[in-house]
């Protein structure tokens, strides 16, 4: 393929470079993947209502989020196992985000540690928390605080792991199991395999050395399951623990969004985990306007965002920011840090072009009248 000109091109390039089992882990979703496709069709079903004869010769994508001025309402979504897509993938994403001055969100399930990422980039860093065991969560939160992360994000949509059937069929997991099929897959994707040989098999970096003496923590880690008992009371506990901005991710029901902020969260991230957890879930964009109407705190959103126009639609419908997940991972997997930078350039320029043709000079002036949605 010639030079990629859109995120979908990066998806094709990622498919070429990655072994099938790794591409499927990135691209795939839960069960029949109806939720995955629905995220896209919900965004596509929204139409623009442009305004004419507006001076759009000077345009601005800049916006305020949690007291900071951002050049665009974007953040890099937390994603686990980034090191399998590209060597030191978390660092590549963090550095690209810093270059564009947007927040990078490090996953608990990252392949570079909280501290390593803090050292590699001077940009704004947020930490996403999975609660496997409360004592372990407390330690991770303390480490993120010490390392200078400014925002904590609690992910709430993994009570148990989603049934990702592509991963099941491919026997995908860490550590990678070298079955004959996996070896053949690796041989057919030599560039990826050479990188793996050179840099070693990535590991879950934040759990390394986690309380070897604490048998409860070790058992929880071995089970590879989240603490499914985490509830509203536990959210209060976490609020006490974290002194800075706290966001709750994985919210779909607007009443949950309202309850989170009433309990002291500084905002919510509407998300269905990109369709990777509960299949046939509503798309977050379908509940956005109602969630915004029920809380006075920022509502961010992700799941299915592949185009600048998608971002403009969500901002017009009241979101304060959009997290980019697979959109950047495809570019990471295809071309590493340079790919992520280019994908962000594409996003910025698509947002800018959409604003111009919509007749809106500043992203901060967007409102619901610029769109018509069927929901
Ligand atoms: N969300 C988390 O909160 N923590 C994770 O560790 C995490 N890992 C992910 C790994 C992959 C490969 C993908 C694609 C998503 C992951 N997510 C995780 C969900 C993303 O944060 C985000 O909600 C999702 O990617 C948005 O959907 P999109 O990829 O369609 O944009």
TrEMBL record:
GO terms for biological process: aerobic respiration. FMN binds at residues 78-80, 107, 128, 130, 155, 249, 271, 302-306, 325-326. SUPFAM superfamilies: FMN-linked oxidoreductases. PROSITE patterns: FMN_HYDROXY_ACID_DH_1, FMN_HYDROXY_ACID_DH_2. Gene3D superfamilies: Aldolase class I. Its cofactor is FMN. This is (S)-mandelate dehydrogenase. It comes from Marinobacterium lutimaris.
């Amino acid at each position: 393929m010639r030079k990629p000109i859109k995120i979908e091109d990066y998806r094709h390039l990622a498919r070429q470079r990655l072994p099938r089992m790794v591409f499927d882990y990135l691209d795939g979703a839960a069960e029949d993947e109806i939720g995955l496709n629905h995220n896209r069709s919900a965004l596509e079903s929204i139409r623009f209502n442009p305004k004419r004869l507006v001076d759009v010769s000077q345009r601005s994508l800049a916006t305020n989020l949690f007291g900071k001025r951002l050049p665009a309402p974007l953040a890099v979504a937390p994603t686990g196992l980034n090191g399998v897509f590209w060597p030191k993938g978390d660092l590549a994403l963090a550095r690209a985000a810093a270059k564009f001055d947007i927040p990078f969100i490090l996953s608990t399930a990252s392949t570079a540690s909280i501290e390593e990422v803090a050292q590699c980039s001077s940009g704004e860093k947020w930490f996403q928390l999975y609660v496997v065991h409360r004592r372990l969560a407390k330690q991770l939160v303390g480490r993120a605080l010490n390392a200078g992360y400014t925002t904590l994000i609690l992910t709430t949509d993994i009570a148990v792991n989603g049934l990702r059937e592509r991963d099941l069929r491919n026997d995908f997991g860490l550590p990678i199991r070298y079955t004959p099929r996996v070896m053949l897959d690796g041989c057919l994707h030599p560039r990826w395999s050479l990188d793996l040989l050179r840099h070693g098999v990535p590991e879950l970096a934040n759990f390394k050395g986690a309380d070897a003496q604490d048998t409860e923590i070790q058992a929880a880690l071995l089970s590879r399951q989240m603490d499914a008992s985490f509830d509203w009371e536990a959210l209060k506990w976490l609020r006490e623990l974290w002194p800075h901005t706290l966001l709750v991710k994985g919210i779909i029901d607007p009443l949950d969004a309202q309850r989170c902020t009433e309990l002291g969260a500084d905002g919510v991230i509407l998300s269905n985990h990109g369709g990777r957890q509960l299949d046939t879930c509503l798309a977050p964009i379908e509940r956005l306007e109602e969630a915004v109407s029920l809380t006075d705190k920022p509502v961010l959103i992700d799941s299915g965002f592949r185009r600048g126009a998608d971002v403009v639609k969500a901002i017009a419908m009241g979101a304060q920011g959009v997290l980019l997940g697979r959109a950047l991972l495809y570019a990471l997997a295809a071309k590493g840090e340079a790919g992520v930078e280019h994908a962000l350039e594409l996003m910025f320029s698509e947002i800018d072009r959409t604003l111009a043709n919509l007749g809106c000079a500043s992203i901060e002036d967007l409102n619901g009248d610029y769109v018509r949605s069927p929901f």
